[in-house]
UniProtKB/TrEMBL annotation:
Top-level lineage group: Eukaryota
Domain Paraneoplastic antigen Ma-like C-terminal: 177-337
UniProt xrefs under PANTHER family: PARANEOPLASTIC ANTIGEN (PTHR23095), PARANEOPLASTIC ANTIGEN MA1 HOMOLOG-RELATED (PTHR23095:SF51)
Lineage, broadest ranks: Eukaryota, Metazoa, Chordata, Craniata, Vertebrata
Name the UniProt record assigns to this protein: Paraneoplastic antigen Ma1 homolog
Record-linked InterPro entries: PNMA, PNMA_C, PNMA_N
Domain (Paraneoplastic antigen Ma-like N-terminal): residue spans on this chain: 13-99
Amino acid sequence: MESVLYKKYQDTLSSWCKGEELDPAHAILIAGVAEDVSISQIEELMQTVRCWGRVRVRGRTYSVEAGGLLVLCECKEEIKPQIVPPEVRSDDGTIVWHIVVVDPRPDLSDASEDFVGKLQSFLQAEGKTIADLQDYVATSAPAKGTEEFFIHAMAEVMKQSNRGMAESHSYRRLRVFSGITPTPMGEEQVEYWLEQATVMVEGSDCPEKEKRRRIIESLRGPALEIVRSLRFSNPEASSDEYISAIDRAFGSPETGEDLYFAYRLIQQKSGEMLSDYVQRLEPFLAKVVRKGGVRAQDMNRVRIEQLLRGAVGADIMLLQLRLKEKRANPPTFLELLSQIRVEEEHERSRRKVHARVRSVGAQDCVSATDFDLQELRADVKALQAKMSELKVKSNPVSKESVSTKVQVR
């Protein structure tokens, strides 16, 4: 937007705020809004920008120069011109609105003041101050010089910030959870939502404020009301406290001790592989830890003890893995699962070898039996041939003796 036109819109904003008895520090002017855009659409799009909080439309007027409507908006948060974006765009890029504030933009001709203002805004967004940066430089600056190290420190801070911003734009959103029973289609059950939220909070490098925002944007209905109540009573509540509130309101009412005893009763099913049994135990064990039934540092030991107790169909494999000897220094879940899978593969290989040996032995026995049977058949045929030969030789003698007897008579 041209500077002359921007200055004119600033004057319009100031006059409009006086007429509406609106504090200019909580007001912004939107230029270029199409006439067919409703107030609810304007407020919804503007509230996607976090720097001014909740937005409410206070008035609209048509402007030929803007090519559309000028919209006066009241913001919940105080407007800080240094961090206000010059324009707002929709996700698909089809909507572009120019933003005007009363306070003038930083004077670009004064490079030093512009740098200091941007540096203060940047450090404030990161939860730091210039004093913190100066203390870090004073305590860590090497012999090569403070100025050079200050530049290096700023580069590191910028690198961490860019990594956090990249994560903020690329993270996988939490599934929606409302706490309504039965669970509506498209929403997550409380146990699965708690697992996802816990992983996000523990594994993300983003600021605490961003973690809280991610949790809130995934909640609906009764679940959102629970977090709102928590924020009202404790505005500084952490993301862990948000998750704990949802767990207490909608999670299992069982205590950590009850869940631990139930965990100790889980046994291996008939025909179930030991690796499958371990994987079936792990989500339940994580739930026990989350409820306080077991300390996180004791998970590996408890897992080994339950294997020795509940793996009723894998005694030989447990001996081969020597799990009793590993109680003092138990492996992690991934290490244990890898060891079990390797041993299961060895067991399958041994079974294949034994099956081949039995098959070859059975074939040898069948071959020897067939050979004896053939030899016996040959002997029988030879004996039959000899008997036939004897019969032929005995027939002439029989006939001659019969004829002689007839002549005598």
